[in-house]
Design a protein that fits this description.
Elements lengths: L4 E8 L2 H10 L3 E6 L4 E6 L2 E7 L6 E5 L15 H10 L4 E3 L9 E6 L5 E6 L2
Parallel strand pairs: 1-4, 5-8
Antiparallel strand pairs: 1-5, 2-3, 3-4, 6-7, 7-8
Length: about 120
């Protein structure tokens, strides 16, 4: 199962203060829009998303079809196939991707400790 690029999506109180903090750790903006209260930052192969006021908890995020530079991969496992495999393993879906669609979709699951995991396919 290929889950794609991994990042941690952080729920931040003040995106400008958080951006400044992570820049001091060597992170640089990769994408997003700080005016819309979200920003993707990268330091080597480490990726974090800063999100102000968009969700309640920090989230582990996987992006099928992308590498760590948000570049399209030639070959990847479609999110609907990943979802089918996880359901077959008995993983409970918090929200599901529509299985009859193509292209962009997402689903949420939780690990045994309640940590949210987002699988978010952009293409």
């Amino acid at each position: 199962m290929k889950l794609g690029a991994f990042s941690v999506s952080l729920n931040v109180k003040d995106i400008h203060i958080s951006k400044s903090f992570y820049e001091k750790l060597g992170f640089q903006a990769l994408g997003g829009d700080i005016k819309q209260n979200w920003l993707i930052m990268k330091n080597e192969n480490c990726i974090i998303g800063l999100f102000q006021g968009m969700f309640a908890k920090n989230i582990l995020t996987f992006n099928p079809g992308w590498n760590e530079n948000a570049e399209n991969l030639e070959s990847f496992t479609d999110i609907r196939e990943i979802q089918k495999q996880l359901k077959a393993e008995g993983i409970k879906m918090i929200s599901e991707a529509e299985e009859i669609t193509n292209g962009p979709a997402h689903f949420f699951i939780e690990d045994p400790d309640g940590n949210q995991i987002l699988v978010d396919q952009h293409r």
